[in-house]
Amino acid sequence: MSIKQISVFLENKPGRLKAMTGFLAEKKIDIRAISLAETKDFGIARLIVDDAFSAVNTLKENDFIASLTSVLAIEIPDEAGGLDKLLTAFADTGVNIEYMYAFTSNKKADHAYMIFRVADTKAAEAKLIGKGIKILDQEDIAAIIE
Amino acid sequence: MGYFQPEIECASREEIKRIQSEKLVKQVKHVWENVPYYRKKMEEKGVTPEDIKSVDDLHKLPFLSKDDLRDAYPYGLLGKPLKECVEMHSTSGTTGKRVVALYTKHDLDLWHECCARALVAAGATPDDVVQVAYGYGLFTGGAGLDGGSHKVGCMTVPASSGNTDRQIMFINDLNATILCCTPSYAAYLGERFKELGYGPDDIPLKAGIFGAEAWSEEMRRDIEKNLGLKAYDIYGLTELSGPGVSFECSEQSGMHINEDHFIAEIVDPKTLEPLPEGEQGELVFTAVDKEAFPMVRYRTKDICKLIRGKCSCGRTFIKMAKPMGRSDDMLIIRGVNVFPSQIETVLLNNGYAANYQIVVDRVNNTDTLDVQVEMTPEMFTDNVGEVEERQKKISDGLQSMLGIKAKVSLLAPKSIARSEGKAVRVIDKRKI
């Protein structure tokens, strides 16, 4: 089961990121993880939030370009070699990673959570499950933080 | 300062009017017989060649504009069979279709003659080395001044545009005395010389002929100071042959129109009625000598005024002031004609809605073109590379449509102001 990430277009201008977080704060949306990809001219914010649908709606209502993207969330032990072990499974199954980022939770302090964007989420999921890797779903993510 | 053809350039007003009338009568007969497109326009207006007896009857004739050139593209306005045509040049049209202008040998000859007059007015003699740093090719700048320079008998360096360090090497090594290029490129060369440690006295140039785009007196002073030369303006458009329709003399106060080839009028751009001499309006030209592309009452869309009066240089040709603007929305960016509609076409072809803004500026003496479009949900993905790819597709499309590089900026939705009436599409920040 994949989870929903929200992807937001940000014009490269002071205050644009703040405008986005402002609208999310207004709707009391909790950001679990955020990563920002930037180019010379624009940026794309990727966020994992507690309520992706409400977040996208509020951003759209306020003239942001925002979309939902399926990503894979995987729990790893927060220890040396933890990520390396997981990436071995990706490499072995030939799953290409477009981008990834991570977050931790104080609820399970000895774990870290990796978010992966791959070209074909469903196919990648099947391959990784075959390697014994657990793919988290929306409820798992909710449980980690609340 | 001498003249290339003193008998014409300094002829009496009566003589010029006589030449113009004689050529106009002949030209109207030529288009009536050979250009069905224009004949139809005349018939619609109820004018026949018999109605045109002198320049005083010019106002009876119908106008031509860029739209006609588009409708008649590419050969619909041709006044001579193709086998008599030997060259063509091209410039932007209003909606992507380019304007194609053809020349017979005779047309080339008179065009080069016009450029030769401009060069001689700037002091050229057969002893001079003329470096032509206008682009060669479809653009008329290179070919026109090149031909003019040959006519004067100057040693001509066909450097074409770009490659600044090579330009500088040739100017120094070949002792170039006259430089022909766009004013912005001249300014850039001036800056580059300065960076390399050259003072104005170290540079062999003595005169420059700079046209194809608008420039200010301030810019002229900078160019003259940095390059140590006297800077002359030149005016023309592809539809009328190219540079050399008018040119500046040593007085540097307006450009003498080559009146034996081009009859100038100023009309009210709204009513199209001729305005009294000295009033500001749209400049209209009738090319009375051109065979292959015989433009009669061609609306340039340039807004300016004509200046009558004795000139200290001795020429009797009427002068035109620097154009103050346009009666249409055409922009001249780095010497290239750009219509907002062309940009819109590219954006629509790439799936962008028609909400965009064009920002033109001049940075370090070079025009910049920034096409700002609002991001749309359809064009957005979470993948930076894909968005950049789409951005590049637009800028490639613009480059191939316009012939110049354009930056494409992606803006947040609704960040471009919506106006109640006509949208403000163009922001021109250049101080000219």
CATH class of the largest domain in chain A: Alpha Beta
Q: Identify low-pLDDT runs of chain A.
A: none
Mind telling me the C-alpha Rg of chain A?
16 Å
% residues in beta strands of chain B: 15-25%
- The CATH topology name of the largest domain in chain A reads VC0802-like
Count of strand segments of chain B: 21
Mean pLDDT of chain A: 92
End-to-end span of chain A in angstroms? 20 Å
**CATH homology superfamily name of the largest domain in chain B:** ANL, N-terminal domain
Oligomer: heterodimer
The total number of structural domains of chain B is 2
How are helices and strands ordered from N to C of chain A?
A: EHEEHEHEEHH
Q: What is the count of helical runs of chain B?
A: 11
Shape designation of chain A = globular
Adjacency order of strands in the biggest sheet of chain B: 4-3-5-6-7-8-9-14-13
Structure classification of chain B: alpha/beta
Structural class of chain A: alpha+beta
Describe this structure in words.
- The complex is a heterodimer of chains A (146) and B (432).
- Chain A has helices spanning 16-26, 52-61, 82-93, 121-130, 138-145; strands at residues 3-11, 31-38, 42-49, 66-77, 97-104, 111-118.
- Chain A has 146 residues and is of the alpha+beta class.
- Chain A has two domains: 3-69, VC0802-like (2-Layer Sandwich), CATH 3.30.2130; 72-145, 2-Layer Sandwich (VC0802-like).
- The mean pLDDT of chain A is 92.
- Chain B is an alpha/beta fold.
- Chain B has two domains: 6-327, Rossmann fold, CATH 3.40.50.12780; 332-428, ANL, C-terminal domain (GMP Synthetase, Chain A, domain 3, 2-Layer Sandwich), CATH 3.30.300.30.
- Chain B contains eleven helices and 21 strands.
- Chain B has helices spanning 6-9, 13-34, 36-45, 66-71, 105-121, 140-152, 164-173, 183-195, 217-227, 340-349, 384-402, and strands at 85-91, 99-104, 129-132, 155-157, 178-181, 207-211, 230-237, 242-248, 255-257, 262-267, 281-287, 298-304, 306-307, 319-320, 325-326, 331-333, 336-338, 356-363, 366-374, 407-411, 426-428.
- Chain B has a nine-stranded mixed β-sheet with strand order 4-3-5-6-7-8-9-14-13, sandwiched between helices.
- In chain B, helix 2 packs across helix 3 (36-45), helix 5 packs across helix 6 and helix 10 crosses helix 11 (384-402).
- Chain B is globular, with a radius of gyration of 22 Å.
- The two termini of chain B are 29 Å apart.
- The mean pLDDT of chain B is 92.
- The interface between A and B is medium-sized, with 20 and 18 residues.
